[in-house]
Automatic annotation (TrEMBL):
One biological process term in Gene Ontology: glutathione transmembrane transport
Name recorded for this polypeptide: Thiol reductant ABC exporter subunit CydC
Species name: Salipaludibacillus agaradhaerens (Bacillus agaradhaerens)
Keyword Cell membrane attached: yes
NCBIfam families attached to this UniProt entry: CydC (TIGR02868)
Amino acid sequence: MKDTAIMFKFMVSEKKDIFLSVLFGFLAGMGGVLLFANSGYLISRAALLPPFYVLTVTIALLKLFSVTRAISRYAERYYSHRATFTILSNLRVHFYEKIEPLAPRIFHKYRSGDLLSRIVGDVESLQNYFLRVFYPPLIMIVVFLATVTLTLFFSVHVAFTLMAGMILTGLIVPLVFASMQTKIENNVREKRGSVSTEATEFLYGFKDLKIHRKLAAQERELNEASTTYIKEQEHQSDRALISQSVNQALTMLVSWAVLIVGVYLVSEGTLEGVFLAMLVMISLTVFENVSPMAAFPYHFEDNRRAASRLNLIIHEEDMERVEEHEVETLNHKETWGISMDNVTFTYPEEEREALKEVSINIPSGSKTAIVGPSGSGKSTLLQLILKIYQAEKGDVYLNGKDITRLEKESIWKGTNTLLQDHHLFYGTVRDNLQLAKDDLSDTEMFNALKNVGLDTFSLEDRVLEKGGNLSGGERQRFAIARALLKGSKLWLLDEPTSSVDAVTERLIYDNLLAQAKEDTVLLVSHRLAGLEKMDQIIVMNEAQVVEAGTYDELIEKQGYFYGMKEIENTLFSA
């Protein structure tokens, strides 16, 4: 119940529709019971040649119950499904709001296929919570209690027989099958996640698999995962069919028991024979409300497991929420400085430290380069500044404010960020550039393209998913153009021109530094050429800062940076 507690919150917000659906469900259920009870009584009574007015009243009641049942059933379906779809919509929004702050660090823990399975499949499963888990037992109980109360006026023994049947088919059997369903449902969800993961790997890595002649092997893995998933689904369906068959068989046995008890009571003279058919018809009809309980174990476990898998993701956001009641924001019109004091950080589920006691100071309006070998922690610094991750030890400050107290959206809004992974969406050049800022003019967008050497493109040119029709350098330049259009005062650039030729790189940096003349720029780079213009160079190695200073100071020192520069000169001169 703890896993599905969030569903109760959303159900309370739709309490009006839920109340109406339960009310009309009760009226529809009782309408059916009274309709068939009246039919059984009419048949028996008609055989005894009663007065004409008795038949007239009975037939009139028959029509009343028929109309009541039909109208109530329609209203019950309308309100219950409206509540369900509203709850599902609210759930999707809630889950997105919870998971959005976790991106992109969530991909370090979950593979994209498994995450997609949770976002789509598990959220979709929860739409059945109200209709298949909460609603059926509630309607079954209220209809049965009303029916048993009605039956008590004719026979206590039959009433107790119906009550025993309800407990057996509506409670004991579903509980037994629910306990058996737990392991099966866990396996189904795990296998579905595996299929999603393998399919994602197969599609995204198709070209590489084809080039390296590993396509057949990956295809076999996908087929094996799919076959295993199908077998688990078949096992799940077989168990659900057995549950339904057992439930229906027991309901028929209960109806036979009512008939036997009724016949005995009539023979003993404690029950009028005219009511026997009515009681049997009641027993046949009231158990229609028990039939959804046959699928209850499947839907209950399906929803519980889906909620549990989603809560594992959501729980991460809750654990990292700032405890203070007030969260500070930054003034985006100001130029921010950055400082770190003895910062240590390790990526989740890894042992190697990505940063070790790092202390840096980047004054507002300065231009700073961070250099060093791959894996030295340069990109990690940017991710801590963006609050994608939080430092285990030490403090990070933006504009003099502790970053743990700053709102993430405020940080992201005030930065022009270019990480190594940037996404281009399916659409036009215009669509992708308009992500930078609202109300951009065509002139502004075209000038941004010109500043990165993409003025041969028009704003209406088509861009495929992930920029599939563009080169690596073109994709980088589109990302830089977006940053230029955003126009914030803090620039965080991680290898922004690694796939760009030297001439275009010079054009980009000249235009970028001209626009960012008064801004704070933090550039991560493997290339050492052109760093003479930087106010400060921070050199990192093995997750630590080993040197810091201006270009001339580091060259004169003849330390680690000097060695890197000598190696670069040797490579290019050769």
